[in-house]
Amino acid sequence: MKKYTNRYHWVSCVAATLLSTLSLAAVAQTTHPLEGRIWDTRSNSFVSEDAAYNAAASSRYVLLGEKHDSTFHHQLQLQTLQALQQRHQGKTPLTLAMEQFDSEHQPALNAAVNAGIKDAEQLADAGMLNRQGWQWPIYKNLITFAATHDWLLIAANLSRKDARAIATGAVKPELPIADAAQIAALENEIVQGHCGQRPAPAQLSAIVTAQRARDARMAAAVEASTGPVVLIAGSGHVQRDFAVPRYLKNNASALTVAYVEVLDGKYSPQDYKLTGFDLLWFTPRTKREDPCATPIGGVVSGAAATSTPKTSSSIPSPKKENQ
């Protein structure tokens, strides 16, 4: 009986091992081959996380482009802050600039920081962060880390009120002259953000101007820092060819990183948009409802323009989580 039991136990172990192996194989087959990998567009090669962090540590401006609702992207951003903290320890003050804070609230944010407030909830209150629009507490860990390590906090975004005034054509801001390629690229981003629907020419021009004003404001905000600065923004804002880097006086000292959600059937970096980014950091895709499943409103339908923070590039009233 004992011999039989041992044999039965051995067979059971083999079967369990086989099932476990098959299960792991099934998981491996469902994992996208690009997931977790980093593509350097400058060297046309994959690089390690350590190499990416070293590149960030040697840059004056580190622009991290995200999809706003991706917890994967926020976790990688936090890891980048941690890596920079480790590499810059005791050398120079660091700054976290965020699209999620409107620049008009910078004085109140400064007052809270100067008062020694470290609590992210209180800092969000001071900076008037739109919790519903930005899906709080999805940014809480980033603010907590920066505050507890004495990073400066910069409210980088143009206010919703100012952006709305520009997008409706009520205000015409003074901006550097943009070439045709820059305007065309912005128009394409906006059309894609509106589910392929193209606003009327005057409306589209006003929305482009509002987007450029946001980018110019963010560039001015990060340039105001005295040391290395990390900008958290939608990936549409960090592209070299038409966004924030275009307004930096020394954009050669900027590192532009796009966190890119992998797509089924697209297994090569060349299958994704490479233009405008130094690094593409591939991540799992966040499950979300199709934003184009319902009729589009806002400026496309002729209604007043609004700012919709949930989108990745913060174009006034878009539908898609495009960049």
From TrEMBL:
Coiled coil: none annotated. Keywords: Lipoprotein, Signal. SUPFAM superfamilies: EreA/ChaN-like (SSF159501). InterPro entries: Cofac_haem-bd_dom. It comes from the Bacteria. Residues 54-248 form the Haem-binding uptake Tiki superfamily ChaN domain. Residues 293-323 are annotated as: Disordered. Residues 303-317 have a biased composition (Low complexity). Residues 1-28 form the signal peptide. It holds the Pfam family Cofac_haem_bdg. This is ChaN family lipoprotein.
